[in-house]
Design a protein that fits this description.
The protein is an alpha+beta fold. The longest helix is centred in the middle third of the chain and has 14 residues.
């Protein structure tokens, strides 16, 4: 999305799953106002039903097929950070991260592709956002929680785009996201409201 905006795609609002891409678009002078974090998210490992992966330690077992988003994608970067955090915990050990990354069979362009491939059984496990385990996804996957001390909390910034075709509506939409009503809707879809973090 950042690249599309930088290449001239018309947009009113830019919301990112990380601060990096918001800063990138802002550096190019394409953001009209100060970005605000409107919601947070956290990671979860998912497996298809019947997967041999039962816990996070299994991600490092030889032969286990893991799918992540690419490192340039926010969830891919967060997943790699969470794996590194797990490797610092005594229960997993220093070699854990390298073994998990050696099991990665695919680096996807977005989190939806990770979810889809895990649902289809093309991998034994993947790491996605909690909000991606929607009611339509949940019956096909099993969730494995990542402990708080290793998990990554993603901050989602939002801002009106400079030269927005509809600046008034864009500003109203940002206000709605930040309002109590907007925060309730986001929480109902698995996100962490800004007031709760």
């Amino acid at each position: 999305l950042a690249l599309q905006i930088e290449l001239g795609a018309a947009a009113d609002v830019f919301a990112s799953a990380d601060q990096h891409w918001m800063a990138d678009v802002r550096t190019h002078g394409l953001i009209a106002d100060t970005p605000r974090v409107f919601v947070h998210n956290r990671l979860v490992a998912i497996t298809p039903r019947g997967s041999p992966v039962r816990d996070l330690a299994d991600l490092a077992r030889p032969g286990v097929k893991v799918i992540l988003a690419a490192a340039a994608v926010p969830v891919g970067r967060y997943a790699r950070l969470a794996i590194a955090n797990l490797a610092r915990l005594p229960a997993y050990g220093a070699g854990f991260g390298a073994r998990v990354l050696a099991n990665v069979v695919s680096n996807e362009e977005n989190v939806k592709a990770v979810v889809a491939k895990v649902q289809l059984g093309e991998a034994d496990a993947g790491v996605v956002y909690v909000s991606d385990v929607t009611p339509s996804v949940a019956p096909a996957v099993r969730e494995i929680a990542i402990p708080d001390r290793a998990n990554v909390i993603a901050d989602y910034p939002v801002a009106v785009v400079r030269r927005a075709p509809n600046p008034g509506a864009a500003a109203a939409f940002v206000r709605l996201l930040l309002s109590p009503a907007g925060q309730r809707v986001l929480a109902a879809h698995g996100f962490i409201p800004v007031a709760a973090h």
